[in-house]
Amino acid sequence: MELIDVYYAYPGSVWALKGVNLRLEKGKKVAILGPNGAGKSTLLFHFIGLLRPKKGTVYYEGSKVEYTRAYLKTLRQKVGLVFQDPDAQMFAGSVFQEVSFGPLNLGLQEDEARNRVLKALEVMGIDDLKYRPVHFLSYGQKKKVAIASVLAMNPDALVFDEPTAYLDPRSSAELVEIMEKLYRLGKQIVISTHDVDLAFSFADWIVVMKDGRVLAQGSPVEIFTDKDIISESGLEMPLIVKISTLLKKKGLLKGAFPRDLKQLASMLENDGGGLTWQKGS
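Predicted structure:
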């Protein structure tokens, strides 16, 4: 996906995107990071043609995005968007009906559509919910159903808008594991978030947005060890970076930054695994 000098304003409002230039590299897990109002969701909506730039151009796989019904139908088979609020994309009575809507809408035969639905439910670990009424599900279960409904379309890329919003810590960790699993299955994963800890531990590439513009982009370590970027963006430094920086200053940590607390714990347990302890520490 590539955006060149893209501007967008909602009716009667100020510009939500102001000259965005961005190219997402295939095969990397990407986090679009920024505070509320930075333009993250608006940017994601351009990825699937839900919004059309007022100025500028959007490209997918080197081809200019066209805003015809036929082109957008094809684009949305390749790039699937999971909304922040699962209720925003659900309308069917049962889980099976909800997940089968997309494949059937593609014109697939009933058997093929059913196979896709069952596979998506299996990948998401919600086979047991297939006949459950959607409105009886918990919020976390609805999130999984929303992902399954997109997954059943068999897209190349999945785009998540604030995937862990309103989830408890256990459900958030579960969802991150699911996104990692989908990535290992060959799906491109793009998320928008204001959670710096999630962005640092999950993504290979981070795009920082502020006031409708791309402020910076780079690897997680490049972004979160740059004090100027942190200061200008108004973001906090991830907890693991704070801890690692303190250890490095004290001469207790050498080598690369661990990406999460689990990795740091593993380094601590591993003799000579990048950690050097001073006598008496």
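Summary: The chain has a mean pLDDT of 90.
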